[in-house]
């Protein structure tokens, strides 16, 4: 039995401008003990899928189960298996951190939870804020409380929707160490993030969602192997000739170009020289998940255009 199973899930929202299809026939399973990444651009449908899993939102079609429990028909059991860290910061400002965690324990019927609450506070760097009211915390600290809150009943399936948005480097590292430890102990993890290096480092498998459809799903290693494995990186103040600009990934002064082999590297360098582009700090490296992501998203874009033209 998988930890989570999405079966032909679709979601249509009624909007003033008509029906909007946020999820279109999404099917995949997450195995027990897996660390699974769900990636996609803003508005792809990640949070919609997670809110359906959490029972906060109803699918228009399809079925979702958590360890065999239907999230609609068997809501209470399904919810109990899940620890969900929501993307939006929601909390009651009048309670202290410790009270918040106690109330959440009570909600799941967990008694005598102080030892685990202390451990969570310690692991997430909140020990000295245990008595502070939620409204006295900084944004990053509130997010830590949300993580602790999700884990208070030791759920077998942990769902993290952008847990590191707005979080400092130190907490990111502590958070990932802690979540990786829980995963090693057998907890299943479903993660969405826009930090692709986090997904690359942590996830066994990754699904990519675009406009409500799965456009890629594979082991992280296979996704990385399936793309041009070499990237040419350099800095420049000059603008690239149009043919190269069209295929480059540019971040400020940093330019990255795909090259499948040494011959392509030579061709690219020759084209740069011919265009008079001054190249600084040249290096050749492996493609990373961000390169794969961009390639897959652009591919999906082209396909959508072709399908649109045929329709
Ligand atoms: N209640 C709603 N009513 C109408 N449209 C909605 C509603 N909730 C979400 N949407 C739309 O559904 C699409 C998917 O939204 P969703 O929040 O699932 O995206 P996401 O992948 O989580 O994006 P992000 O990376 O920005 O968090 C968006 O176009 C969004 O505007
Ligand atoms: Mg979202």
From TrEMBL:
Gene3D superfamilies: P-loop containing nucleotide triphosphate hydrolases
SMART domains reported in the protein's UniProt record: AAA
Domain ABC transporter: 4-236
Organism domain of life: Bacteria
Keyword set includes Zinc-finger: no
SUPFAM superfamilies: P-loop containing nucleoside triphosphate hydrolases
GO molecular function terms listed in the Swiss-Prot or TrEMBL record: ATP binding; ATP hydrolysis activity
UniProt keyword terms in alphabetical order: ATP-binding, Cell membrane, Membrane, Nucleotide-binding, Transport
Protein name per the record: ABC transporter ATP-binding protein
């Amino acid at each position: 039995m998988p930890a989570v199973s999405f079966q032909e899930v679709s979601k249509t929202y009624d909007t003033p401008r008509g029906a909007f299809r946020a999820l279109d026939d999404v099917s995949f399973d997450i195995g027990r003990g897996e660390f699974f990444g769900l990636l996609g651009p803003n508005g792809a449908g990640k949070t919609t899928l997670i809110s359906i899993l959490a029972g906060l939102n109803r699918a228009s079609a399809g079925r979702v189960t958590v360890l065999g429990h239907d999230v609609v028909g068997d809501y209470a059991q399904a919810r109990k298996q899940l620890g969900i860290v929501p993307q939006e910061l929601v909390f009651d400002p009048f309670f202290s951190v410790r009270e918040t965690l106690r109330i959440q324990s009570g909600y799941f019927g967990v008694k005598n939870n102080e030892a685990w609450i202390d451990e969570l506070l310690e692991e997430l760097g909140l020990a000295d804020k245990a008595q502070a009211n939620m409204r006295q915390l900084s944004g990053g600290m509130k997010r830590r409380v949300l993580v602790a809150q999700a884990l208070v009943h030791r759920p077998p399936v942990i769902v993290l929707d952008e847990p590191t948005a707005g979080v400092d480097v130190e907490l990111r590292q502590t958070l990932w160490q802690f979540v990786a430890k829980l995963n090693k102990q057998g907890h299943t993890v479903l993660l969405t993030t826009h930090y692709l290096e986090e997904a690359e480092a942590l996830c066994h498998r990754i699904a990519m969602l675009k406009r409500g459809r799965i456009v890629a799903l594979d082991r992280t290693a296979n996704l990385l192997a399936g793309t041009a494995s070499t990237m040419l990186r350099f800095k420049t103040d000059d603008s690239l000739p149009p043919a190269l600009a069209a295929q480059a990934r540019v971040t400020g002064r940093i330019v990255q170009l795909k090259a499948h082999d040494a011959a392509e590297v030579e061709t690219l360098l020759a084209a740069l020289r011919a265009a008079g582009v001054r190249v600084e700090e040249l290096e050749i490296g492996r493609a990373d998940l961000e390169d794969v992501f961009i390639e897959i998203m652009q591919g999906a874009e082209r396909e959508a255009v072709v399908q649109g033209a045929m329709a």
